[in-house]
Amino acid sequence: MNKTISINIAGFVFNIEEQAFEKLNLYLESIKRNFQNEEDCDEIMSDIESRIAELFHEKISDRKEVIIDSDVETVVEIMGKPEDYISDDAQPHTESQSADDAEYVEAEEVKGEDSTKSNGRRRLYRDEQNGSVGGVCTGLGWFFGIDPVLIKIAFVLLVILGGSGILLYIILWVVIPEAKTTAEILEMQGEPVTLDSIKDHVQGMKDGVKDGASDVKSGFKKAVHQGVRASSKLAQSLSKVFGILFTIGGIVALLVLFIILFGDTGLLPLVGTEQVEDLPTLLGILYPENRSGMVFFAILIVTFIPIVSLIFTGVKMLFGITTKYKKIAITGSVIWFIGATTLALTGIELGMNFRNQVEIDYEVPVTVDSTNTLFVDVTEDDIFSNFIEYNNVWNYSELIRVEDEKVRLGYPELRIVHKNDSTDFEVVLYKGSNGLFHKEAIHKAENIDYKIDASNNTISLAPYFTINKEERLRNQQVIVEIHVPTGKKIKFGKNIDRIQVDVSDDYYRHNEMFNGTTWSATSEGFNCSECRDKRRMYDSF
Amino acid sequence: MKVENTKAQMRKGILEYCILTVLSKREAYPSDIIQELKEAKLIVVEGTLYPLLTRLKNAGLLQYNWVESSSGPPRKYYALTEEGQQFLTELKKTWNELYEAVQLISK
User: Which of A348, A407, A470, B105 is most buried, with most CB under 10 Å away?
Assistant: First the structure.
């Protein structure tokens, strides 16, 4: 007793035994492969199917209603085996192939039949059957003839390295077609696609025999050989070289982007810089509440889509995948355009908010006794010292810290100016801000909170100033200016290099090594007594 | 170099000529064509004929009519077009020349 299936060939219904059906299905599938690149594929297939229907028709009689295994075999005999179908057009291709094959056969010594003909060529597919997620790693393993575990390890490393492995995996998942048909699975594994090999394969699947190590080993040997062959081909082909360049370039760009967007993971010290807050937070204090999420998303789109398509193209070139992804390409471009437009519009809106600039000055009373020396230092930094190395070179714009509703900005500036015409020290605090309107800018400048202590020959400056989060970042600035009359001195404390210091003029800027130095104002300018060799005299001219 | 390959190449070269010749005598259905080609040992399996016919048809050398069949789906009956006729005449000339050349050399 056998189960039968009802099938429709060329508009005729036949009852066919299950086993015979599978055989027939495989047969049609594998001959279709020979034509699939031709325009007339469908026509040829329907001609062939018509003929098969006719042949089946002859087999059916009053006494025999079902198509059985032997009927299919007869059809195959009449119509020809899949390998008989190899089209003439593929001729030049096959010939160039056979040159490579010759080497391969030599290397393998006795290979017997020409089983490594054009259809023995290895192609990249996803192996969902054996893979753990989408079969990408296993498919790559087949392609390169290496253990998929190695590729999986590489992916896991990439995931740890900023998470780009996940994205790369998804890209590969989309680009690489899944090995669906038996013929594709055989191609993936580098087996020649003949009826016999298909039969063997199906038999293997049915029996569920994971047939021992010997089989796997010989498969491996072959796989390595073909892998080597594949890679020598890679070197020859320019498109592959570009494919590699695109892929690697794309992955590197992706890593860099991840670091810029989500902060330094610390694993790539050469690429990333220390940063206190990540991009979403910074956008949150720059854009209005309801905009920042949108802007971040737009940035993601505008930067990721080109990189992703670069990797996409690279992978396609690298593995010779010819499938077209028109829909994805169009959707991608549209989304990119929307993202770019969003960025432009929100950018213009943001720019408007910087239209007006305001600076307010406050006099800070200070008393200095007969020592004539004003001691200037910065108080201990309880915020940024956790993120930056003390007395290190940093980028001031990175010193932004958001805490609850407050934003700490770690870049106040100190200017020491020589004043010939006065006799007393003067300390002036400037607070500045931009805003959409003049009034708004004034309001924002007034709302800057900066701690400055002046007592007994000493000025203590806070290492940061504070604004309310709802004020948003509008180029708020704090500048402390100390006017030094001739004959008086400034002595800097050990923390002074924590903030930006400017002695005497706008042309020389020194953001380091001011700590512990003393500067005396002479009629010719400032004179630094304890400064190291390089820094002897700076004048006010 | 395998003799089988060379044989196959030689057969392939004249296959189109033979198909056109068969069809110049009468309209025919692929399995009729096969019958004649098989007798001449030019082709062994039917499958290879279908792509060839499609290609010749798309090149404008052949045309076909659908004819209802009592034993299965409707059949395509192929015939030569005007162009195919001219093509065949050209091929015939070449073939005769080749034949004579081979005869001459073989003497």
Answer: A407
Residue A364 carries which side chain, given as an amino acid letter?
A: V
CA distance A427 to A481: 6
Closest residue by Cα to residue B59 from B87, B35, B18: B87
For A175, the token pair is 């680009």
A460 and A492 in contact (C-beta within 8 Å)? no
Question: Which residue type, as a one-letter code, is found at position A337?
Answer: F
Low-confidence ranges of chain A (pLDDT < 50): 88-119, 209-212, 265-273, 506-507, 509, 511, 533-541
Q: What number is the ipTM of this complex?
A: 0.85
B55 contacts A79? CB cut-off 8 A:
no
Cα B64 versus chain centre, distance: 15
Residues ≥6 apart with Cβ < 8 Å to A469 = A285, A402, A404, A405, A406, A407
Determine whether B67 is exposed, middle or buried from the number of CB atoms within 10 Å of its CB (0-12, 13-18, 19+).
exposed
**CA angle, residues A387, A397, A432, in degrees to nearest 5:** 125
Tell me if B61 sits within 8 A of B81, measured CB to CB.
yes
Contact indicator for A185, A201 with CB cutoff of 8 Å: yes
A478, A431 Cβ separation under 8 angstroms? yes
- Chain B positions in Cβ-Cβ contact with residue A77 (cut-off 8 Å): 45
Domain ranges of chain A: 4-85, 91-110+121-236, 242-352, 356-539
**Given this model, what pLDDT does residue A220 score?**
63
Give per-residue pLDDT as tens, B29-65: 888 888 888 887 777 678 888 888 888 888 888 988 8
Q: How far apart are the first and last CA of chain A?
A: 109
Burial of A299-324, coded b for 16+ CB within 10 Å and e otherwise, reads bebbbbbebbbbbbbbbbbbbebeee
Alpha-carbon gap, residue A344 to A298, rounded angstroms: 10
d(C-alpha A177, C-alpha A155), whole Å: 19
Cβ neighbour number for residue A221 with a 10 Å cutoff: 12
Q: What share of chain B is helix, strand, coil (3-state, %, to 5)?
A: 65, 10, 25
Neighbours of A30 (CB within 10 A): 23
* A351: Cβ contacts below 8 Å, ≥ 6 apart: none
Q: Which two tokens stand for residue B92?
A: 């015939």
Give the domains, in start order, of chain B with CATH numbers. 3-106 (1.10.10.10)
Residue pLDDT, tens place only, B16-33: 888 888 898 888 888 888
Residue type for position A468: N
Q: Which of B6, B50, B52, B71 to mutate to test the interface with A (most CBs of A within 10 A)?
A: B50
Tell me the pairing of strands B62-67 and A458-461.
unpaired
Residue A46 CA to residue A8 CA, distance in Å, equals 12
Q: Which residues of A touch B (CB under 8 A)?
A: 10-12, 31, 35, 38, 40, 43-44, 47-48, 50-51, 53-54, 56-58, 77-81, 84-85, 87-88
Rounded CA-CA distance A164/A268 in Å is 13
Using an 8 Å Cβ cutoff, are B54 and A46 in contact? Answer: no
